[in-house]
Amino acid sequence: MNLYDTLFWFFSAVAVGCALGVILSRNPVNSVLFLVGTFLAISGHYFIMNAQFLAIVNIVVYTGAIMVLFLFVIMLMNLNADVEPQKGQLIQVAGVISGGVLFLVLIAAIHKASPMPIDKQSIDIGLINNLGKVLFKEYVLPFEISSVLFLSAMIGAVVIGKKEPALPAEGEAQ
Amino acid sequence: MSQVVYLIPLFPLIGFLINGIFWNKMPKSVGGAIGTLAILASFIISLGIFFEVRSAAFHGPVIVNMFDFISSGNLNIPFAFQLDALSSLFLLIITGVGSLIHLYSTSYMHEDEGMVRYFAYLNLFVFSMLLLVLGANYLVMFIGWEGVGLCSYLLIGFWFKKRDYTNAAKKAFVMNRIGDLGFLVGMMLVIYYYGTLGYQELFSTLGGANAAVPSSVHSWIALCFFIGATGKSAQIPLYTWLPDAMAGPTPVSALIHAATMVTAGIYMIARSNALYNLTPGVLHVIAFIGLATAILAATIAIRQYDIKKVLAYSTVSQLGFMFLALGVGAYTTAVFHVMTHAFFKALLFLGSGSVIHAMGGEQDIRKMGGLGKHMPVTRTTFLIGCLAISGFPGLSGFFSKDEILANTFAHSSVLYIFGLLAAMMTAFYMFRLYFLTFSGTFRGTEEQHHHLHESPAAMTIPLMVLALLSVVGGYVGMPAVISHHNAFASFLGPVVKNFGVHHLAESTEWILMTLSVVVSVMMIGVAWSVNKKPQFAESTGFAKLLENKWYVDELYDAVITRPLNALSEFMDKYAERRGIDAVVNGVGKSVRWGSDRLRLLQSGQVGSYIFIMVIGMVILFTISFFWVR
Amino acid sequence: MLLLQVDIALIIEKLIIISVILMGSLGIAMYATWGERKVAAIMQDRLGPNRAGPMGLLQPLADGLKLFFKEEIIPDRSTRFIFILGPCLAMLTALMTSAVVPWGPDYIAPSGRTITFQVADINIGILFVFGVVSLGVYGVMLGGWASNNKFSLLSSIRAASQAISYELAMGISLIALIMMSGSLSLRDIVAQQHGFWDGNWFSWYVFKQPVGFIIFLTCAFAELNRAPFDLPECESELNMGYHQEYSSMKLGFYLFAEYINLFISSAIIVTLYFGGYNFPFMDQVATATGPLLFSIICILVLISKAVGMVLFFMFVRWTLPRFRYDQLMKLGWKGLIPLALANMLVTGMLVLWVFKS
Amino acid sequence: MPVYSTHYLFLSLLLFSIGIMGALMRRNAIIIFMCIELMLNSVNLLLVAFSKMYVDINAQLFVFFIMVVAAAEVAVGLAVIVMMYRKVHSVDINILNRLKH
């Protein structure tokens, strides 16, 4: 068992464990932290697959920005385990069963797929200059469009989150 | 010159657009001038094209492709114009007579508030008519065909405030549509069997190597086209719209319902001569229908009192003559008669317009009489028109009608006798009209008598030009016995191939000519003697039958309209309400019943939606991975 | 670069470097507290700490000892695990940044072995710094929230939004620099600033990117929560800020993390804009001395530059008054980001049209 | 036991299914939103694995774009949730059943 495989199993265990933590923990803040853990584990996977750029971008975007926003919102609303709405036992069991059935169906469908070895290290396609060349040559239009998407999402978020003028101002730092 | 052919329809289109867009903002004289000048410009280019086609350097038809109109699979129909002897001749007739009538209209319609609108319609009509004759395939012809039908509708119902007039317009439109259906079916048959609509492609493959197409198909196509022609050219059984169409302004009657649009059917059949030459049976039908129409319309014309109705029935009758000529295979003769008829019938209509103008809108000839004294120009030109249509020797009608009769005689002497009968009646009713109108004493009111006057120059100049044409127009097609060379027939020869026309012995032709002249002159005399002391008693018996147009309208009403109405009512009450409505409502009700139950699934809880979505995903995956192999 | 191809010697070498850097940063951070008090004293014309040891040099040790022996208080209604996690995260992220800083030039040992004075030369060093900095927010946020104190919560939210807002301007200002350098690796960037005078212009990026430097510096103030942007811990509004409920070594962690951050940020600023370990006439020095000595000189140069930067931070803290929160946000969003964008645009045009080589 | 592409396949499927379970089990809109992010990430992981497997860089660019879309989605989605909280003072999705009426 070499380092690569060890790291794979380690990150996989962390990812799955943290993912379970996300859905099982009662406190939303804990969920967020577990999700951060999952994302870090996934970034670790990217690292060992030598996709360094994506790994760092994953950290910066997901854990550094998106999850902070989640945490932000949860803190603003002061959500904790006490106010967490809970579903009935039956619904939860049904959710687990249907999710599990979906998993089993998909596994059963692909379990015969011929395993191909992941060429872990020898290829530098995940490095930033290779990625950048393709991104700015072949995907320049999607890139530009996604920037427009970003802009519109930003404006949309501002418009949605804008206070109605009738309401008194609330302290929100967003 | 042929490369600028698109200008010919373009000018009227521009005129239409200008007049149509600014119809309520423009002074009448400007609108009239624009309309007239547009047609005049077209006429000038048409003249150029005509001389180019006539020149020795011209070989075969020129096809000018404008753009690809329909391109789908193997079917490729370009928007193309075809220039040859036939189309250039029709161009001349349309634009020439058209510009004269436009000029006439500037004066005739001057009192009318909708004059600019009128000119817009008129330009649109000319545009459509030019498309009809210029098109290099049946589709372009059909566009023009529908366009002229539309304009005819618009112009007949021009004074749409009168209910009768709009009804007449509707009648014309519906009748035309019935014929158009035939044309459409014919076109589809052509596409189905030949995969093209272009004249050149179609006629070159027609009946030749393409043996896969059964010959009966040719007959069906020919018949369908002929049905289209009967609608547009007012033949039995679709002729009743034309007399009613006299509701429109008189210049419209002159242009559309005498000179141009109604000859579209003849143009189409002459154009499709290659097709009809393959189907002698259909030609017989055409000849028979044409002759029947000629006689029927002539008999009706004898007992009409409306000046325009007489002319209308006369037009129907003359169109019947043309179809008779087509039916006996003498296409060039038919086209020749189209041309001469365009001259003298337009002249007669415009003359009657002049009379109506003078009478202040009165159209009943029983209230006229003695007008010749007051309007000498109208009288003289009208007389020339009457002589021409009656076949007086030396005038245009003489040559064309005589040629038709000669060809008919060569075909069958029985048909000839009936044709001669129709020609006799023509002379009679035309001169009955003339005498009742222009000679004798005035029978109208004092006020009308006071107002009688000659029309202004804008109206009399077209009359004089047309009268001149009516006199000399025939000399281009003098029969071989007189000039040894029928210039007209040889001009059209490359395009229009006559079918089964026998050449008569010279002596026979002279005899036939003399006979028809004698008969005509005789009938003029009869008409004079009958109308010397006109009395308008309530007619009885046969005369009444004629006066009521053989009760054809009533017959149609009883045979077609009423049963149809009854059927519709029946359908409305039972099939529609109990059958279709029940089905439709039943579908609605059952959907409603079902959705009442399905609604319970929609709990409004997002969670349950996700649940259902996941379950659906599982089921779909299961099916696609494990069952569907 | 193959990330996971390692041998035992390399692992040992890296472990040594890591521990030295950790110890070094901790030590420097310790004395930064002393330095800060001394600077404050100088600015306020007083003596500052002078009891423990000569010139009060033992003061940081005494302070550390005091923090160790303080009573550990965990508020009753706090979220216990996260309450402890907060300072740990703050410390962790503070220390992680140092991994990509190149402390000195390569030293080729007599055995032929190349020793790089850098924990990891990943080719996306700057992005790594960003990733870690963005994680640094968690320590503050979680600590403030877990305390279950509204002042702490407000403070941590302030800290987080301030950090997120200024990260944008910081990143954009850095893009301009990256455009010029053409590499994300800090090692390459330092190598490009070799010496002091390169050809016909200064080689340090502070001269090539003055606007970018100013933006970056301003953002660094905000990221470090230091005056004039120390809104999260402004006593007049929020008592003590997010570490109000902390005591003992957990408080010590927070304070320590701040000074470590201060030092590492200074090191990074120096690396990016002031040539890192490069100094004028370094080639002559390199030939005059042996390679080992030269490496040590370089490391000392970098550390002294960083210490100078730290002193600058301190001087500013005691010079400028604190901003108001809305002024802070306005400066960040309406001032620095557009400026950084314009800088990026101008740099891009220059790189594309003027300096195309 | 060496690592093959199927390992990544199973791992990302597992993460995806956990995400789905979470979306089904929880009523907190934010948690559901987070579960969606988790599912997106599992797909990203699979894409990167495939990109390594086929030595194709395009898959990694798709990951990049998925991140962009996810970020935009979070911005709008969280704004919506904040707005919802402001109106009904809860993030329970079961309260949002206006669609029923």
Summarize the structure.
By secondary structure, chain B is mostly helical.
Write a structural description.
The complex is a heterotetramer of chains A (174), B (629), C (357) and D (101). Chain A has 174 residues and is mainly alpha-helical. Chain A has one domain (3-161): NADH-ubiquinone/plastoquinone oxidoreductase chain 6, subunit NuoJ (Four Helix Bundle (Hemerythrin (Met), subunit A), Up-down Bundle), CATH 1.20.120. Helix content of chain A is 71%, strand content 0%. In chain A, helix 1 packs antiparallel against helix 2 (28-48). By secondary structure, chain B is mainly alpha-helical. Chain B has helices spanning 7-21, 28-54, 85-108, 115-134, 138-156, 163-194, 199-205, 215-232, 241-244, 250-259, 264-271, 273-276, 280-302, 307-327, 331-358, 376-390, 396-411, 413-438, 446-451, 457-472, 480-483, 487-492, 506-530, 541-547, 552-598, 606-627; strands at 62-72, 75-83. Chain C has one domain (73-354). In chain C, strands 1-2 form a two-stranded antiparallel sheet. In chain C, helix 3 (80-96) packs parallel to helix 10, helix 5 runs parallel beside helix 13 and helix 10 crosses helix 12 (291-317). The two termini of chain C are 26 Å apart. The model of chain C has no long low-confidence stretch (mean pLDDT 83). With 101 residues, chain D is mostly helical. Chain D has helices at 5-25, 29-54, 58-88. Chains in contact: A-B, A-C, A-D, B-D.
Topology:
The complex is a heterotetramer of chains A (174), B (629), C (357) and D (101).
Chain A: H1 3-24, H2 28-48, H3 52-77, H4 89-110, H5 128-137, H6 140-161
Helix pairs in contact in A: 1-2, 2-3
Chain B: H1 7-21, H2 28-54, E1 62-72, E2 75-83, H3 85-108, H4 115-134, H5 138-156, H6 163-194, H7 199-205, H8 215-232, H9 241-244, H10 250-259, H11 264-271, H12 273-276, H13 280-302, H14 307-327, H15 331-358, H16 376-390, H17 396-411, H18 413-438, H19 446-451, H20 457-472, H21 480-483, H22 487-492, H23 506-530, H24 541-547, H25 552-598, H26 606-627
Antiparallel strand pairs in B: 1-2
Helix pairs in contact in B: 1-2, 1-4, 2-3, 2-4, 3-4, 3-10, 3-15, 3-20, 4-5, 5-6, 5-10, 6-8, 8-11, 10-15, 11-15, 13-14, 13-18, 14-15, 14-17, 14-18, 15-16, 15-17, 15-20, 16-17, 16-18, 16-20, 17-18, 17-23, 18-23
Chain C: H1 8-43, H2 59-69, H3 80-96, E1 104-108, E2 114-117, H4 125-146, H5 150-181, H6 186-192, E3 197-198, E4 201-202, H7 205-208, H8 210-223, H9 235-238, H10 248-273, H11 282-288, H12 291-317, H13 325-354
Antiparallel strand pairs in C: 1-2, 3-4
Helix pairs in contact in C: 1-10, 1-12, 2-10, 3-4, 3-10, 4-5, 5-8, 5-13, 8-13, 10-12
